[in-house]
Design goal:
There is one protein chain. By secondary structure, the chain is α+β, with helices and mostly antiparallel strands. It is built from 11 helices and 13 strands. Strand 9 and strand 10 form a beta hairpin.
């Protein structure tokens, strides 16, 4: 380097030399922290913060030059700038509401979707404390999360709560927030994403209400309700357990579907089950003898339908205890048979009576005929006597 110029070494391009020459002329030979690109020995370009100051050495004017390599700093600044630009692009163009909130809880910057979600103008929201738009009963939800992050117990938080729009309408939102810190780990501000989940929450509430109604209906039903697969029972309501005398735990852990059926009807029940599980028939309804836990026989009417539950083939259906009805029907049959016997007996008696009457009628008719014949003969005799 000693004895050679920057041109000899190829440190500066023509454009960089002209720039430095212009700066030198404009500042009487002095340059202070001019950013230039120097080409180092291996051909790479480096960002150099370049300064020049005229000095006198032994009565001769020289130039004292100093360069500080700021390439990494410039790259870092570029990365930061690009990162900030990307963040700003995401912040401004996000479909979700976003805001930057100070440590005091006031919103420093908000994007358009958040304004539209809450019905405020940008200048109205910025400067508001986030609790001022929070439904009063939900304020503690956000406060707890903020305290945890500030205390270093968590870096981010996600939760749901209710917001109040400018018009007073209540909406449900999902909050995802992170606390940004500086190099010394001191907190700077919160970056928060806000998503309107009102439709989903309302749907969940309706679904839960519906499920509660269904559960109440099933659990309090006077009909036994069950679900089972090829391995055993998956569900049985209280009435099902009552009918057969088992606890829910016993049904779910020990019983097979055919265990509640009397031996003589088990083959029939097994065939119905297999046909439904393989999809041969969608549903069946039949009457069978049931087995109570005590060994007592009972009559049940079973209805079962094949469905797919969470990707598995199962059978769900109902069981009615028809023992009393069946016994009543049997009694009716016995009474009918008894009546038929009585009718048959009376019919036979009537037939005998009718035969007797018919016989008597015949005798009476014969007697009448003979009386007429006698009267005729007497009349003839009387006429003959007169003539003689």
């Amino acid at each position: 380097i000693i004895g050679r110029t920057s041109t000899d070494l190829g440190l500066l391009s023509k454009e960089e030399r002209n720039k430095l020459a212009t700066l030198t002329a404009e500042s009487n030979g002095m340059i202070s922290n001019a950013l230039c690109k120097f080409k180092i020995r291996d051909g790479r370009l480096r960002d150099i913060m370049y300064s020049v100051e005229p000095i006198m050495l032994n009565g001769i004017q020289h130039r004292l030059s100093m360069g500080i390599d700021v390439t990494e700093q410039k790259q870092a600044e570029t990365q930061i700038r690009e990162s900030e630009e990307r963040f700003r692009t995401i912040f401004d163009q996000s479909a979700s509401g976003m805001c930057i909130t100070g440590l005091d809880g006031k919103m420093l910057s908000v994007n358009t979707p958040l304004c539209e979600m809450l019905g405020y103008k940008k200048q109205e929201l910025e400067g508001l404390h986030f609790n001022s738009i929070t439904y009063p009963e939900d304020i503690e939800i956000g406060n707890v999360s903020v305290i945890k992050m500030l205390e270093g117990k968590s870096k981010k938080a996600a939760f749901e709560k209710r917001y109040l729009t400018k018009s007073g309408k209540i909406i449900w939102v999902r909050i995802n927030t992170v606390l940004l810190r500086d190099q010394d780990n001191d907190p700077l501000y919160f970056v928060t994403q806000v998503e309107d989940v009102t439709m989903r929450v309302n749907a969940d509430i309706r679904l839960k209400t519906s499920e509660n109604k269904y559960k109440a209906l099933v659990e309090q039903s006077l009909t036994g309700i069950y679900i089972f697969n090829k391995n055993g029972y998956l569900y049985a309501n209280d009435r099902f357990c009552d009918i057969f005398g088992y606890s829910e735990e016993e049904v779910l852990s020990n019983l097979k579907p055919t265990d509640i059926i009397a031996v003589e009807d088990q083959e029939k029940a097994l065939q119905h089950i297999e046909k439904r599980l393989i999809g041969e028939v969608p549903s069946v309804r039949y009457v069978a003898k049931g087995n109570h836990k005590t060994g007592q026989l009972l009559w049940v009417e079973i209805h079962g339908t094949h469905i797919e539950l969470e990707g598995e083939d199962v059978i769900t259906g109902t069981v009615l205890d028809i023992t009393h009805r069946k016994l009543a029907e049997d009694e009716i049959v016995k009474h009918r048979e008894h009546l038929e016997e009585l009718v048959n007996e009376r019919t036979k008696e009537l037939e005998i009576k009718i035969s007797e009457i018919e016989r008597m009628n015949k005798l009476f008719v014969g007697r009448e005929i003979r009386m007429k014949e006698l009267k005729g003969l007497i009349k003839d005799l009387e006429q003959q006597l007169k003539m003689s």
